[in-house]
Amino acid sequence: MIKPLNVLFLCTHNAARSIMAEAVLNHLGGHRFRAYSAGTQARADHRPHPLTLEVLRAASVSTDGLRSKSWTEFSAADAPAMDLVVTVCDMAAGESCPVWPGHPATAHWSYPDPSKAAGDVEQQREAFRQTLHALHQRLELLVQLPLSGVDRLVLQSEARRLGQKTP
């Protein structure tokens, strides 16, 4: 059996987009992927945004074990070695990232922050649904890639190509 590709999704607070990406890739990726998420400034209470959890559950995606984490957890020597690190918000993409053990492939996939959506609760919920849908589409493409035996540069190229597509 081939070891799964470890993918880390980064965002500023690790409360919405990166948490969604972690949950969806673990849902879609089967034994081929193991997803994680973290933030540059993780939430102090370690709780994902409530609407993040709500829309994931409504989509039948497990929310077990999801929590807001700092990216320092994944830059430590005993952290799982990542094969791919993807920023999913523009603020995190612009920050100086730690040096990741193993020097993984990197990519940036830009999504608006659904937690900043204006309007009533239903309009905010819809922003979270739209973000989840866009992430789901892109992650479906990722899991369909023929990744067995690819090297870091090919993985990086493919992940960055996916970031150029409009989901």
From TrEMBL:
The alphabetical list of record keywords is: Arsenical resistance
Keyword Zinc tagged: no
Q: Name one GO biological process term.
A: response to arsenic-containing substance
The record places domain Phosphotyrosine protein phosphatase I at 5-145
Coiled-coil region(s) at which residues?
none
Q: Which InterPro entries match?
A: Ptyr_pPase, Ptyr_pPase_sf
Pfam families, per database record: LMWPc (PF01451)
Q: Which SMART domains match?
A: LMWPc
**Which protein are we looking at?**
Protein-tyrosine-phosphatase
